[in-house]
Amino acid sequence: MIRFDQVSKTYPNQNRPALRDISLEIERGEFVFVIGSSGSGKSTFMRLILREERPSVGHVYVAGKDLSKLSNWKIPQLRRQIGTVFQDFRLLPNKTVEQNVAFALEVIGKSRPTIGKAVPEVLDLVGLGGKGGRYPNELSGGEQQRVAIARAFVNRPMVLIADEPTGNLDPETSVGIMKLLDRINRAGTTVVMVTHDQAIVNQMRRRVLELDGGTLVRDQSRGVYGYVR
Amino acid sequence: MRAQFVLSEIFIGLRRNLTMTIAVVVSAAVALGMLGVALLMLFQTNYMKGYWYGKVEVAVFLCTKDDTSLHPTTCAGGPANQTRMDALQADLTANPLVQNVLPETQAEAYARYKEQGSGSSGGEYSQITAYVSPDQIPASLRVKLKNPTTENIDAIRSTYQGQQGVEAVADQRTILKPLFKLFNGLTVSASTVAVVMVGLALMLIVNTVRLSAFSRRRETGIMRLVGASNFYIRLPFLMEGAVAGLGGVAVAALGVASFKFFLIDRVLAPSFTFTSFIGWDKVLVTILILIPVGLLMAVGASALSLRKYLKV
Hints:
Chain B: InterPro entries: ABC3_permease_C, FtsX, FtsX_actino, FtsX_ECD. The complex is a heterodimer of chains A (229) and B (312). Chain A has 229 residues and is an alpha/beta fold. Chain A has helices spanning 42-49, 75-79, 97-106, 112-125, 141-153, 171-186, 198-204; strands at 2-9, 19-26, 31-35, 57-62, 65-66, 82-86, 159-163, 190-194, 207-212, 215-220. Chain A has a six-stranded mixed sheet with strand order 6-7-8-3-9-10, sandwiched between helices. In chain A, a hairpin with a 2-residue loop joins strand 9 and strand 10. In chain A, helix 3 packs across helix 4, helix 4 (112-125) crosses helix 5 (141-153) and helix 5 (141-153) packs parallel to helix 6. Helix content of chain B is 71%, strand content 8%.
């Protein structure tokens, strides 16, 4: 589903590469944690999958396509197959929950009947059935993140990328979010999640990719957050 | 493509940046209005050239009784009589440069003079006509050239200027010179202002779109992430520019129309009765030219600004 082939990324005017010779493959339907301290290259890793950046060296493949050969006007097609969730939710405050989710479908030109059907469905899935008319500021952090997940998932993407989705949430709420992501993963969507949350990684026992200074230092299936040093 | 969605985005955007939108509309209106005035003046100049250059170009004025003292060399023989006039006419007709010659006797010239005087609104002019007698107005030969270039006119002038019975040879186009000068001046100054204002309008549009892109960065960021096409993301901004540009065109059209209505029809036309002025058809043509210019200006500047300030 996602394959990195000897990928290095050096940003302009920087000596040290943000990513150094990364090769890995994430299979369809996998659940992968990406961990590492700040500046270890996690964000660059995500941005390369979304084709927000191009690798300096090497190739990134998503769904069988070489992203470096992807022309600019085809990028939207790629991004329609990837849902994205952020730590800070990124909801539109002047739109209701329903409108926020519908927005993702409106802007890719889906028809009104399709939207009318898909939005309540996905809101039920994330456990927000009946809260479609609320505004983001009327919801708790956990609920807001569920809206963001609903928005990322409403178009049924093949990959869901979550950048510290529990970073702003208390442990109890985080568990709820993780259950939701797990459910989405079990339905067949590949989930790539960047996190600092040790408890979650240790509890879920899924594949762990650890980055350190731009290098992949660990690729462990059923891994835990870290060794006690 | 959801038209309703795009439309609502446009108007939200325009309302959010209301002051900038007004600035854009006004500067675009002034720019386009000046362009329109320049175009109208260009039309008018060409129109007058066609109108006048097809008519009489050179007038050979004959001596009157007063000229004996004023022009002692050529008018020494007193006022030119019919015989002299016929001789000059025959001579001019035989000239290869001349197409035809139209004689105007003193009586005819006096009648035309009085008619023009009565048409004028100024009381001063009619007071003068009362003291002018027919024998003070010179008879003339109106000469139309085959090819009215400046050289040919000069050639005719130098040939007949010194002849007996000829008071003066006048290039009729010189009487139009002030008017041509006025219109040329208007064209030049209007186009200068237009150029400056177009530059100003472009900068304002670039900035407005930049502000708009900034205030909607949250939306466009999400649109980008969920895979909206570049066109779809940019369209509301481009349409914003287009709507503002069309607003400018509308105001400019009003300006051009009032220029025709107030300045040309009410001021210029009554003051310069000897020539006619462009009609509303040319105003319409001007407005039809302004529409694509305004649209192109606004959409072009928006697109440029988006390239720079909206990452897709």
